[in-house]
């Protein structure tokens, strides 16, 4: 599968290294869409990719699928155009908190028959949540996220602080670079207005910890994911980058699990 990546930050560099440098069977990144070619010029020789700043040229290049590794605004601006030509994997899931975009994307999927894959990112358990809610009988979903304090607030603190408590719909507005996980969890389950979120700045940790609690007719489930950060961007978990690689591998394989 030939891949085009949008963005060239921490997640994108993980993918360049693991896919192009270390090589993965049947996967190859050919094209990278950036805002500033000069800034990222070194990538062309390092990973044998072509850089693009024009979206149509990027989409018409030698790629089968687009991987977004940029931010929410980029998804809002580019995804509708992408879906007219290519499948897409999205990691900045927060974009789908906008119901207008969600409806537009649903219409484009029907019309152009391209697929959108929402990576599970820095969490897991989305298969269980979707199964448990297949009859609409999950009652409660709560996400408690703890991140190193310095990645959430500028001021130094000595004890933990709850920086957000409420619904996913508001969490993503206030923390668009930290709460994408709350939106994928919402889409798999009760929706953005009914998924409970707590975000805690913790000065005593150096990992991104997501705790998920699900209650419904099936019973109860709790998961804790203790994520190592990506060195290039400690706000982003290593698993978020891995989840894109996992999605790419699963698309390629006809023996589907879960
Ligand atoms: N679902 C999940 O669990 C998670 C999701 N995320 C999402 O992934 C995104 C990427 O994370 P990460 O790699 O750590 O972030 P980085 O800040 O390291 O990299 C972001 C990259 O996107 C580029 N970019 C921004 N806007 C555009 C654009 N319009 N067109 C092309 N490139 C663009 C930036 O380029 P430039 O130099 O031009 O600014 C930069 O190279 C985050 O913003 C977040 O939305 C992150 C962590 C977890
Ligand atoms: O990487 C993480 O732990 C989660 C994150 O930033 C997000 O969901 O936006």
CATH fold assignment of the largest domain: Rossmann fold
Per CATH, the architecture of the largest domain is: 3-Layer(aba) Sandwich
Percent of residues in helices: 25-40%
> What is the number of helices?
9
Give the helix/strand class: alpha/beta
Order of helix and strand elements from N to C terminus: EHEHEHEHEHEHEEHHEEEEEH
Unreliable sequence segments: none
Number of strands: 13
| Lateral arrangement of strands in the main beta sheet | 3-2-1-4-5-6
Task: Describe this structure as you would to a colleague.
This is L-aspartate dehydrogenase. Helix content is 33%, strand content 29%. The chain is of the alpha/beta class. The strands form 3 sheets. Strands 3-2-1-4-5-6 form a 6-stranded parallel beta sheet, with helices on both faces. A 5-stranded mixed beta sheet has the order 8-9-7-10-11, with helices on one face. Helix 1 links the parallel strand 1 and strand 2. Bound molecules: NADPH dihydro-nicotinamide-adenine-dinucleotide phosphate and oxaloacetate ion. The site of oxaloacetate ion (OAA) has 13 residues, from helix 8 and strand 13.
Quick recap of the structure?
The chain has 9 helices and 13 strands. By secondary structure, the chain is α/β, with parallel strands linked by helices. It has a 6-stranded parallel sheet, with helices on both faces. A 5-stranded mixed sheet has the order 8-9-7-10-11, covered by helices on one side. Strands 12-13 form a two-stranded antiparallel ribbon.
């Amino acid at each position: 599968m030939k891949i085009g990546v949008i963005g060239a930050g921490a997640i994108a560099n993980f993918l360049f290294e693991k896919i192009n440098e270390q090589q993965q069977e049947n996967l190859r990144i050919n094209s990278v869409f950036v805002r500033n070619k000069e800034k990222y010029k070194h990538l062309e020789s390092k990973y044998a990719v072509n850089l693009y700043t024009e979206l149509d040229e990027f989409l018409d290049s030698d790629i089968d699928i687009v991987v977004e590794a940029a931010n929410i605004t980029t998804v809002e601006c580019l995804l509708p155009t992408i879906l007219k030509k290519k499948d897409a994997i999205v990691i900045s899931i927060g974009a789908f908190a906008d119901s207008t975009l969600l409806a537009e994307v649903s219409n484009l999927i029907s019309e152009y028959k391209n697929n959108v894959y929402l990576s599970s990112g820095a969490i897991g358990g989305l298969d269980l949540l979707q199964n448990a809610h297949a009859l609409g009988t999950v009652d409660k979903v709560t996400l408690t996220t703890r991140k190193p304090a310095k990645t959430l607030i500028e001021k130094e603190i000595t004890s933990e602080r709850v920086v957000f408590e409420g619904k996913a719909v508001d969490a993503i507005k206030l923390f668009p670079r930290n709460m994408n996980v709350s939106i994928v969890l919402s889409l798999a389950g009760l929706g953005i207005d009914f998924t409970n979120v707590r975000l805690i700045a913790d000065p005593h940790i150096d990992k991104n910890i997501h705790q998920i609690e699900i209650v419904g007719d099936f019973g109860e489930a709790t998961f804790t994911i203790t994520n190592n950060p990506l060195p290039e961007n400690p706000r982003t978990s290593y698993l978020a980058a891995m989840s894109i690689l996992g999605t790419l591998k699963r698309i390629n394989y006809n023996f589907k699990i879960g």
